[in-house]
Design goal:
Strand order of the largest sheet: 1-2-6-3-7-17
Oligomer: single chain
Helix content: 25-40%
Number of strands: 18
Largest sheet: 6 strands, mixed
Shape: elongated
Distance between the termini: 19 Å
Number of helices: 15
Bound molecules: zinc ion
Length: 468
């Protein structure tokens, strides 16, 4: 028996019986949280966001979390609380968010979005899985542990954000300001879902981002293409030449040095990806393209999860109206984004792309390059102790070893934890993969919810055994 288990923290009779006894009360509390229409993106719901923060803070105090505060950010507050009495044990930063997406179109909902109902093993409401359900699961796991044992097996610092669904506008500044207070060994974010087929999974990596706007300028105003064509540069032509030179037809990015820092996947990574159920033809058909593209030597899932990319997101310039207009446009523009993987640095990739564009741009035009945004890629290796502990907890509770998923997209808060706090993150999410997040009829599986609470309790016990 490990030290943690010997303390009876998880998988023990007391905890199991407590969770069984409190099922009804738990559901009522979950529903009460779901009834608060905390839509962060709609200003008219600001008071509701505040009410959700207060609800969550009161819950945290009631179950025994300490130093609970509603921390102002300039926008919707962050709710913070901690429990730090597990001397010598790891400290984990736990993240979820209490705000939700708007609910339009309302007429497509089977029942009102803020009047939760349980039907066929599902609880239906806005926020049921993204992310109030997962927030609530964490609180219930903490409650059960403290109620049955009077202590937690690890130290927890819990933050619940209120602006995740509206771009986390104030989060980075808040993290910067609270860097010392948030010091931890690693972070756990519960805001992701299981894999297709509701298979337990852990998201081990997310791609980062650098977003660029390129503006090319020629003459002061649009010119007559008959009177000037042939003697004066055309910025749209130049922009197209530059854009075309950034990437080869086979999908490989041509910017010198672009791949230099890319972490090569380990054998373990490749095996884990190959284990994912994936049907390439069905994937292609679901998108509606005649064929897929991608870097030679990599599978589709590797291209999506392990390799960086570069895409033009928009391009404009010159005459776009109906019929002909014979001009040499005065300017042309493109928005270009690169998805990055570990260990690429957005700042450095921006410099590489900008440097290459400088080489490509002819003297016949002027141009500017702006950096519109970025985010760090993140990777928590499959063999990281915090990941291994999560895998053990999932297997012990859901009865199946988890799949390891590499997301092609980004979760900004994950990038911020990596970039600002220097923390590795375990993405331990429990939402059903088809849970209709951001859409009408969002739902959470009651099995995932109940079992997930036990997984989280078990996880803290597993983490307690990690050497610091
Ligand atoms: Zn979310």
């Amino acid at each position: 028996m490990t030290d943690a288990q010997s303390q009876g923290v998880a998988g023990d009779e007391e905890l199991v019986s407590y969770l069984d006894r409190t099922r009804e009360r738990r559901l009522e509390s979950f529903k009460a949280l779901l009834r608060i229409p905390s839509i962060s993106g709609i200003p008219a719901h600001a008071a509701d966001c505040r009410a959700a923060a207060e609800f969550v803070a009161a819950d945290m105090r009631a179950i025994g979390l300490e130093h609970v505060e509603i921390s102002e950010t300039g926008g919707h507050p962050v709710v913070y609380g901690d429990w730090l009495a597990a001397a010598g044990r790891p400290t984990i930063l736990v993240y979820a968010h209490y705000d939700v997406q708007p609910v339009d179109p309302l007429d497509l909902w089977e029942s009102p979005p803020f009047e939760p109902v349980v039907r066929d093993g599902r609880i239906l409401a806005r926020g049921a899985s993204d992310d109030k359900g997962q927030l609530h699961m964490h609180l219930r796991a903490i409650e059960a542990l403290l109620a049955t044992h009077g202590k937690l097996p690890v130290n927890l610092k819990v933050i619940f954000e209120g602006e995740e669904e509206s771009s986390s506008v104030h989060l980075d500044a808040w993290l910067e300001a609270n860097r010392e207070k948030l010091k931890s060994d690693f972070a756990v974010i519960s805001d992701t879902s299981f894999f297709e087929g509701n298979l337990p999974s852990i998201t081990v990596s997310l791609r980062g981002l650098v977003y660029i706007q390129l503006d090319v300028f020629g003459s002061r105003v649009d010119l007559h293409s008959g009177a000037y064509g042939g003697a004066v540069e055309n910025p749209v032509n130049v922009l197209c030449q530059i854009v075309a030179a950034l990437k080869r037809p086979d999908g490989r990015v041509s910017v010198p040095g672009f791949y230099d820092d890319v972490a090569e996947p380990s054998h373990l990574d490749q095996q884990a990806l190959a284990r994912l159920p994936f049907d390439e033809d069905a994937y292609r058909d679901s998108i509606g393209v005649p064929a897929l593209i991608g870097e030679p030597g990599y599978t589709v899932l590797e291209r999506l999860g392990m390799r960086p990319t570069l895409d033009v997101n928009g391009i404009w310039g010159g005459f776009e109206g109906e019929g002909p207009k014979t001009i040499i446009p005065a300017h042309a523009h493109a928005k270009i984004s690169c998805r990055l993987v570990a260990n690429q640095d957005p700042e450095q990739v921006f410099q590489l792309v900008a440097g290459y564009i400088a080489k490509l741009a002819p003297r016949t035009v002027r141009y500017t390059i702006q950096r519109l945004g970025d985010g760090m890629p993140s990777l928590t290796p499959i063999d990281h102790p915090a990941t291994l502990a999560a895998a053990r907890a999932l297997e012990a509770t859901f009865g199946a070893a988890p799949l390891y998923v590499r997301e092609g997209g980004s979760i900004p808060v994950c990038a911020s934890f990596e970039g600002i706090l220097g923390l590795k993150t375990v993405l331990l999410g429990f939402a059903p993969p088809d849970g209709q997040f951001h859409a009408p009829n969002e739902w959470m599986s009651m099995t995932n919810y109940e079992t997930g609470i036990r997984t989280i309790a078990r996880y803290w016990a597993e983490v307690a055994g990690i050497e610091r």
